[in-house]
Inverse folding.
């Protein structure tokens, strides 16, 4: 049963004509009537002209306005690099000992970074890390010698963009407390990244069929994209 709060929200908003992100932000924020700082989330529907099995988007984007989330970062590295990782702000640092803890199911982190030398050992834990989306990946910058940069990106607003098996992409552009400029910059950074992904893949026509925005406990609106993605 819908709560009193939810019943006060506008109805059938997803049936309204698409509007630009700039026009929608004030509406979305006005629907954030809970006591916590709600997240503003995008949902992209990939054009169903594409075969679902052929859609494989997985990349990262650095949000210029930040993500508003505190990310707990773990680093698997050689002993010689552990000090560098700790100084760069990693929350958990280890080598073989940390790998054993992960193997035992200790996944008390949101992001895992690994040096190339240690990745050989870590790669054997695909069944543990894979389903959680935590396996480090060179393409995503999480298998690297440059631990300082990788940790900094993870902490300052880097988010992953990937489609699910049904061809949908979900990603947050920030929190209700963010100003409109921050949210718009984050939105545009995500669009730029998707535009690059389109050019890197052989999509026929537009890659994105529909785009929606909603808040954590709010209702959904269609977004009018200014780009043909």
């Amino acid at each position: 049963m819908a709560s009193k709060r939810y019943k006060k929200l506008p109805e059938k908003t997803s049936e309204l004509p698409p509007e630009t992100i700039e026009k929608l932000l004030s509406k979305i924020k006005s629907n954030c009537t809970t006591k916590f700082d709600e997240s503003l989330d995008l949902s992209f529907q990939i054009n169903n002209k594409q075969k679902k099995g052929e859609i494989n988007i997985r990349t990262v984007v650095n949000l210029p306005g930040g993500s508003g989330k505190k990310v707990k970062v773990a680093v698997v590295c050689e002993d010689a690099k552990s000090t560098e990782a700790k100084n760069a702000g990693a929350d958990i640092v280890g080598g073989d000992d940390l790998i054993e803890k992960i193997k035992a199911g200790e996944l008390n982190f949101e992001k895992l970074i690994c040096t190339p030398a240690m990745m050989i050992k870590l790669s054997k834990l695909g069944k543990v890390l894979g389903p959680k989306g935590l396996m480090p990946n060179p393409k995503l910058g999480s298998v690297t010698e440059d631990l300082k940069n990788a940790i900094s990106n993870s902490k300052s607003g880097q988010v992953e963009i990937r489609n699910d098996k049904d061809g949908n992409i979900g990603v947050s552009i920030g929190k209700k407390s963010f100003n409109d400029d921050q949210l718009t910059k984050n939105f545009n950074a995500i669009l730029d990244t998707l535009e690059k992904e389109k050019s890197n893949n052989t999509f026929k026509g537009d890659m994105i069929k529909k785009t929606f925005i909603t808040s954590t406990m709010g209702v959904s609106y269609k977004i009018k994209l200014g780009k043909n993605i």
Summary: The mean pLDDT is 92. The helical segments are 4-7, 21-30, 79-87, 96-103, 116-122, 126-129, 147-156, 180-200. The CA atoms of residues 52 and 166 lie 6 Å apart. The chain has eight helices and nine strands.
